[in-house]
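Model it.
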Amino acid sequence: MAPGSTILILLLLLLGVPAAPALGDPGPLEDVVIDRYYIPKICLREVQMGDFIRYHYNGTFKDGKKFDSSYDRGATVAGVVGVGRLITGMDRGLQGMCVNERRHLIVPPHLGYGSIGVAGLIPPDATLYFDVVMLDIWNKNDKLQITTLSKPEHCNRTVENSDFVRYHYNGTLLDGTPFDSSYSKDSTYDTYVGTGWLIKGMDQGLLGMCAGEKRSIIIPPFLAYGEKGYGTMIPPQASLVFSVLLIDFHNPKDGVFLEHLEVPESCKRRAVTGDFVRYHYNGTLMDGTLFDSSYSRNHTYNTYIGKGYIIPGMDQGLQGVCVGERRRVVVPPHLAYGENGAGNKIPGSAVLIFDVHIIDFHNPADPVEIETVYRPEDCNVTTRDRDFVRYHYNCSLLDGTKLFSSHDYEKPQEVTLGTNKVIEGLNSGLLNMCAGERRVLIIPPHLGHGESGARGVPGSAVLRFEVELISMEEGVPEGYLFIWHGDPPANLYEQMDLNKDGEIPADEFSTFIKTQVAEGKGRLMPSSDPEKVIADMFQNQDRNQDGKITSEELKLKSDEDQEKIHEEL
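Modeled.
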């Protein structure tokens, strides 16, 4: 109970005046009788002399007959207390009231309209009974009242004049009557701060806020809609209370903001315009709302940077990344999806935050990158095209994800170089190696498995191979299964026909070829299965496929080349 009210009641008791009309009529009243029949639990402010107030009332006589009512007029009463604009009884009876407090006031004639009354409305010497509810209190010396309800732990930037803000709000009058809410429209309120687009109180009240901060802002009428009010919901001279949640903000002059969360110690190369980048990302609004994620699709986002395939902010934000880097890219809306937003998850004028993890990148012009880890000192013979090689390898993505390894099998990998049996980049990386040499190969996708990838290999992936050459055998020219080290025998068919029966079956052919190899007169195409190579040679010479070679069927490869026929001998 306010001190003034206590003194007033004590005064009434000393004068023998009851505190409520229900106690009976002891005679003429000397002062206003006040019954505070509803007092709010929270009373932040009491009416004082000189305050501006808004209130509703019903005015009756002792017999209950109504002589006036603000409710009937559909408008609250606004005025200043203690400056003679109200009858004396009301001036006294309203002092000390809280917002939403309700009082019964009994005003004796000498504090009301006296012996004159109001013609046709209030008779002379009438005692007046008022039922009053206080709705608003303010003073011309009031300032904006800002209460921070919650604030994020991390706040790198706060709202300044000329910033564009997006916020949710509930707007009420001082008595709690709602007049507007962005939540009911399912859309934030979006506007510039400090440019006159808002009432002055909101322009001031939003300054210094962090994205994600909640505030209560109490705005006196002279910083709101003043004497005119606004529409049917905001009466004249109304204080406004806004509960504000700032979703995001930016400035039209903002560029992309980068935060380097994790940068690998070794960064030999950084992405530039024209590079093709594979990365994972989580995309959120400034309030933390997730709008998209590559992780949810279990697939990286793959694109060229600096070429307009992605929003300008990401084109800029991915410049200079390293493989393995984790980076936060904050993109203002004019470098993202602008005023229109995108779909139903990215609102118009939204600031976007991308947390990206760079898996790899390459340029379409990249060659195979070769790093020699170990090379024997006595390295006199190196691999060439068509050589048969045996090698061990470990294959992984650039982020360290293991894909394949020859060590998982019983023996090394075998291949004839230049026969399109391995990806082009690996074939190139195995050339000019010595037996025992170890290399690391970085193979761009256009020399690997391309945009489509392969089983276990993502599309457009850069591959890392650790290779060790175990052994090599000199190869033969393309199209040959066997070559002579010198000139072939002049009477080749007669020498090959070991039993001189005029025909050469498969076993006779095989024995002859093996003898030439053993005596160093020629060599087979290197293979892990020489018998199959010889069988293929025989089949190619046995033109009618009758199981034997005749003299008419046997031809040297050099002769066939002249005839544009590609066989083996």
